[in-house]
User: Which sequence fits this backbone?
């Protein structure tokens, strides 16, 4: 707003070292001051000034505001003195005379003078006649803006009865009791660390079963190569489901065969815990074995790839992501079923498998804890 | 407005002059906007439903500020004339009339307002130089 309305250049603003009010915190009367500043600049410009020093402009703005307030105070004082609350022209004339007294006003020496013929007013009339009109540069809205304040509703509004007869109903209502009364809260669930761990283990086993089923399906698809599209959809679904939340994986039905053998992997790993066995990987071991080496397993086809007995397998815990993916590729190579679609599918599956492996790895940690505890 | 019984024609003239003036005020738009004047007057307790009075106050304030500024302008021009006498080459540069704190404080002194500006802040190499010869 500062640069609007003043046609003269404000080059001296840059030369002035003092910073403007932008560095200070906004005061309450910021808008009024800004408007007055522009008005002062316009007045000076009409006199012939071509530039202003910022500090001088600020000082003159202050002067203007003080003058306005002074006139108001004096005029209201005179009105009150006469027993009125509203000011009229005579109050203003007296106020102007008082303010101009130090400078000298024409006709001050005359006593018993009617205010209508006051020299001050005459001077003002002369001023208006001589001066050409320079209206303010921009339309100024009515200020200060009165905001509708939301008050606290009274007891009557809330249709509440005030507690206690000494409180009238038109007073603001009390806040809700929960905002100022603190009642102790008890945790209803009793927590047993042992029960929690057992629960956790159960849930993890469920996840393992689901993953194992998934893995089997993948292997089946690779080995058979038929109706792969249908299965991929299903397994993608499965992958998604598993990837999203292994704990939400559907529990396996008792019909599925592999369940019976994998019911208590913790037990098995306890027995064969010499090596770095992890129950999940153990479960997958036969499948991986089948993929890596044995054509004999492939002859089983879509059926159970898991032999009855488990083979002890050593695993390298590689940090790379292709723990399970690599064998599949090998399998593909062996089969010689390198169709473009299969490759694509396998690539897609690799990504999903990485996710599944991530989950696997996570579950691997906890069974280890279980074994140790 | 207070209509006293007029004893002489002079007063009657004044009265009519004033009422004419107030009527003419509505045509004349003072440089200080009405809203601003109203705001500060209401802050200090001035209450009036009459717009003409607001305009009167605005015009009176404008007159006052114009007087102060014109006094400062006279000081500025006087200083320029004095400088030009000494150095002719500065004539072109000092054609611009700039409102400075110096001139303003001199003119305000006559109105009873004491505005003292810091002579210098010792934070830059160009402190203490005569303001008239400082590069604007």
Assistant:
């Amino acid at each position: 707003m500062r640069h609007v309305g003043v046609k003269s250049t404000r080059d001296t603003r840059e030369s002035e070292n003092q910073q403007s009010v932008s560095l200070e915190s906004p005061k309450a009367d910021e808008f009024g001051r800004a408007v007055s500043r522009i008005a002062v600049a316009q007045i000076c410009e009409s006199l012939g000034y071509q530039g202003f020093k910022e500090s001088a402009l600020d000082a003159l703005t202050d002067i203007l505001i003080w003058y306005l307030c002074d006139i108001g105070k004096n005029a209201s004082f005179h009105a009150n003195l006469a027993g009125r609350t509203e000011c009229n022209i005579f109050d203003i004339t007296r106020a102007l005379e008082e303010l101009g007294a130090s400078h000298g006003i024409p006709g001050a020496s005359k006593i018993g003078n009617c205010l209508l013929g006051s020299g001050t007013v005459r001077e003002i009339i002369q001023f208006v006649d001589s001066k050409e009109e320079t209206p303010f540069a921009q339309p100024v809205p009515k200020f200060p803006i009165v905001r509708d304040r939301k008050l606290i509703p009274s007891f009557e509004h809330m249709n509440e009865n005030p507690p206690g007869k000494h409180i009238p109903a038109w007073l603001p209502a009390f806040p809700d009791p929960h905002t100022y009364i603190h009642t102790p809260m008890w945790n209803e669930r009793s927590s047993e660390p042992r029960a929690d761990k057992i629960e956790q283990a159960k849930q993890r086993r469920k996840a393992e079963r689901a993953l194992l089923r998934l893995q089997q399906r993948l292997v089946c698809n690779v080995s058979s190569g038929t109706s792969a599209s249908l299965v991929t959809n299903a397994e993608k679904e499965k992958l998604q489901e598993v990837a999203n939340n292994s704990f939400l994986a559907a529990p396996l039905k008792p019909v599925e065969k592999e369940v019976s053998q994998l019911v208590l992997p913790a037990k098995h790993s306890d027995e064969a815990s010499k090596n770095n066995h992890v129950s999940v990987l153990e479960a997958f071991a036969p499948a991986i074995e089948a993929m890596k080496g044995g054509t004999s397993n492939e002859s089983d086809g879509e059926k159970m790839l898991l032999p009855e007995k488990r083979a002890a397998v050593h695993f390298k815990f590689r940090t790379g992501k292709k723990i399970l993916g690599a064998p599949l590729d090998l399998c593909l190579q062996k089969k010689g079923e390198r169709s473009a679609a299969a490759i694509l599918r396998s690539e897609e599956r690799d990504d999903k498998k990485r996710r599944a492996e991530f989950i696997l790895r996570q579950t691997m940690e906890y069974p280890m804890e279980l074994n140790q505890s | 407005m207070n209509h006293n019984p007029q004893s002489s024609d002079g007063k009657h003239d004044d009265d009519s002059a004033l009422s004419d003036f107030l009527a003419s005020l509505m045509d004349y738009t003072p440089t200080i906007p009405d809203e601003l004047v109203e705001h500060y007057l209401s802050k200090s307790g001035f209450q009036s439903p009459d717009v003409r009075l607001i305009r009167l106050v605005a015009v009176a304030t404008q007159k006052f500020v114009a007087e102060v500024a014109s006094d400062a302008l006279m000081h500025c021009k006087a200083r320029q004339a004095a400088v030009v006498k000494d150095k002719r080459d500065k004539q072109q540069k000092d054609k611009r009339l700039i409102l400075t704190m110096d001139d303003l404080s001199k003119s305000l002194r006559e109105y009873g307002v004491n505005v003292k500006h810091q002579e210098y802040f010792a934070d830059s190499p160009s402190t203490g130089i005569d303001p008239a010869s400082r590069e604007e």
Observations:
- Chain B is about 55% helix and 0% strand.
- Chain B touches chain A through 68 residues (CB under 8 Å).
- Strands of chain B lie at 98-99.
